[in-house]
Amino acid sequence: MTPNHAWDIDDFVHAAEMTVQGLAAYVRESQDGTAPVIRRRPPGELAGRLGLARWIREGGMTPESYQEWLDTYLVEGTRLHHPAYLAHQTAAPDFPAALADFVHGAINNPMAIYEMGAAAATVEFEVLRWMLAKVGFPEGGGVLTHGGSLANLTALLAARAAAAPDAWTDGVPGDLALLAPPSAHYSVTRAAAILGLGERAVVPLDVDDLGRIDVTRLPEGLDRARRAGRRPMALVAAACATGTGLYDDLRPIGEFCAEHDLWFHVDGAHGASALLSEEHRHLLDGVELADSVIWDAHKMLRTSGLVAAVLVRREGDLDAAFRQRASYLFYGDQGFDLIGRTVECSKAALGLKVFLNLAWRGERGLGEHVAERYAAAHRFWELARERPGFHCPYEPESNIVCFRYGDGDQAEIRETLLEEGSFHLTSAEVGGVRHLRVTVIAPATDDKTLESLLDRIAALGDA
Fold this sequence. Notes:
Layout (H helix, E strand, L loop, with lengths): L8 H24 L10 H8 L1 H7 L4 H13 L9 E2 L8 H13 L10 H18 L5 E5 L2 H16 L3 H4 L5 E5 L5 H9 L7 E3 L13 H10 L3 E8 L11 H10 L4 E4 L24 E5 H4 L7 E5 L2 H5 L30 H36 L4 E2 L8 E6 L4 H11 L3 E7 L2 E7 L7 H16 L1
Parallel strand pairs: 1-11, 3-4, 3-5, 5-6, 6-7
Antiparallel strand pairs: 2-8, 7-8, 9-10, 10-12, 11-12
Helix pairs in contact: 1-4, 5-14, 6-14, 7-9, 14-16, 15-16
């Protein structure tokens, strides 16, 4: 007899089969581009369509009613596999990563404590060794976290521990500072506040017209911090910048940091995957000089969210980031536990997603995906600049392109596209001016899609 509240295996198998079939149809329809790329009903209306209050209150879902509910749920969202998905830096996940989510969802091995998931932890160890080798940290260490924001925080905790070893117990010295360009991801300023430095401790570095660090003026930024009575604990560079997709010049920045004994942190959340492309890895020349690097797999390595690596050149630096006491967790030899390197205790089996994508596609296959998406973005730039009315402020280095059409309201053009469900793109400021922004990330996006987008924008801009 099945114990009360144990899995009904027959129901699970039935519902799982329905889920696979439903998702297969959803991805097929999305990749074919036959449905709207985005729907944005108001939450109140959508909650009614999904019957959320009733299901929460009454329960009683069966495999059959679940199928009907799932069909509605899938329709009322954003289709990242769609060729017209050109918005945020979130991957259309490959199916091996989806399998990893399914496996972890069933077995639930939170592996920051090794005894809670030896296989999952071992997979993460090997994935990290691979990533460390790619970055150029053969003696380094790492951990996978739930997202780039948490990864930046973790890396900067390690930098704080190096600059102020007693900060964990005695509090943060009031003179610490971070050096970062104004174009740095918002999580850098957020991390400064969480770390106890405060937003005002982030000293802006001089940049060029496109927001890239001006290497020739690095001494001025350091001097500004010191004249303000600040002791810089780290310098942050982008590989690549979130807004523009442009890379900072890492080698001279790294050499400057080494000369002045500054912790060098590279936010490679989006662009570190270019290390897998022979054509593009030069964009990260000098990354091996960094003290820490973050690298998101849920962007260009095609995993589902979230998988972000924190990688350090010296393994002990990451071990120094945290201090913890809990008699129910920490006793005797901790062996292979990762909990001492991460905020999370019940950490999901994040390495499994990366591993299965690698196991299916290979390092070469993932590198080809990066190169293809970078090439498609460059093709969009070529198409746009050939058309009257379009302005592109720079040649793209990654799969992110900023552009304008005419002198009208770019935000209005974007909003119309979203309301139509025809294209999903974002916007960003370049040089203080609002631009439209595409991230060519879905494998289904081709020249036909890009030409259609340009046609539609021109039509809206001329209306």
